[in-house]
Amino acid sequence: MNMKLKKEIVDLITMASKSIGKPMVEGVDFEIVYQPLKHKYKVLPDGKIAVYTFYYKNQFLKIGQANIKSKARYQSHHYHIKSGKSTLANSILQDNSMKSIIGENNITQWICDNCERYDVVIDGTRHDKMALNFVEGLLHYYYRPKYESKK
């Protein structure tokens, strides 16, 4: 795990939330759940909401959110091309620089083997959709993930 990156994410959330008078504390309000290279994707625990990330070669590819009712988005959605148009799998396969090394048949395994995840798992009993939007927006703004809209 890149401890510097984990600390950077924690510091971003704690400092930004404190600056607006709604402090979020690591270990109380949220935790960073790390999924390493060659991971098996995890289930979002009951009562939790999350901002998930996919990190590849020092760059965030995708950052998104999952609430209590969208656990599949956190767990497996982005690993499969048939889960929807805006999945990480589809974004990678539409990228000319990537699709030459990855095919449709092995995209799920490639993501598990080559992407790390630094997920911000938030206590859904203490925080709501607004906190989720805040953290996701903060990470989008700071990290500028590769496969997000750049309008």
Description:
The protein has 151 residues and is of the alpha+beta class. 37% of the residues lie in helices and 20% in strands. It has 6 helices and 4 strands. It has a 4-stranded antiparallel sheet. Strand 2 and strand 3 form a beta hairpin. The longest helix has 17 residues. The chain is globular and about 45 Å long.
Strand content: 15-25%
**In sequence order, what are the helices and strands, one letter per element?**
HEEEHHHHEH
Largest sheet: 4 strands, antiparallel
What is the helix content? 25-40%
How would you state the average pLDDT, rounded? 91
Tell me, what's the shape? globular
- The largest sheet has its strands arranged as 1-4-2-3
DSSP summary: helix tally:
6
Q: Compute the number of strand runs.
A: 4
**Roughly how many Å apart are the termini?**
32 Å
Helix-strand category: alpha+beta
Rg from C-alpha positions?
15 Å
